[in-house]
């Protein structure tokens, strides 16, 4: 009686497993799909003479984000060649830059639009981690 009961239990479990997998609802698969449908994270960055705020951001490798750029005074640049980022930030406008960093490291985004005496030191540190 006891043996019979256990056999029945495992058979039911095996059927439930097969149904789950064939329905495409296996948890790992499900999690991947859910993640792919999430909208990218938006990170707001403000530019003003002669700094970006925040001055350091950290992104995850392989994860798409949108950098939402605004300027509080005049036109600034936003440039990082290894990340394929090259934007101008004009006052009174919002500039969205989509980025999916693929290599871990520390990158420097510079203002490449002359904006005054401190222009050469206007930078943002962008860390990419796993
Ligand atoms: Cu800001 Cu150059």
Oligomer: single chain
Summarize the helix and strand pattern as letters. Answer: HHEEEEEEEEE
The general outline is globular
User: Low-confidence spans: pLDDT under 50, at least 5 residues?
Assistant: 1-33
Number of strands: 9
Bound molecules: dinuclear copper ion
- How much helix, percentage-wise, in residues? 10-25%
Radius of gyration: 24 Å
Q: Which sheet architecture does the biggest sheet show? A: 4 strands, mixed
Mean pLDDT: 82
- Which strands sit side by side, in order, in the main sheet? 2-1-4-7
Tell me the span between the first and last alpha carbons. Answer: 53 Å
Q: How many H/I helical runs? A: 2
Determine the strand fraction and express it as a percent band: 35-45%
Structural class assignment: alpha/beta
Task: Write a structural description.
This protein is of the alpha/beta class and 130 residues long. It is 25% helix and 39% strand. It has 2 helices and 9 strands; from the N terminus they run ααβββββββββ. It has a 4-stranded mixed sheet, with no helix packed on it. A hairpin with a 4-residue loop joins strand 5 (76-80) and strand 6. The protein is globular and about 40 Å long. Mean pLDDT is 82; it is low at 1-33. The chain binds dinuclear copper ion (CUA). Dinuclear copper ion (CUA) binds next to strand 5.
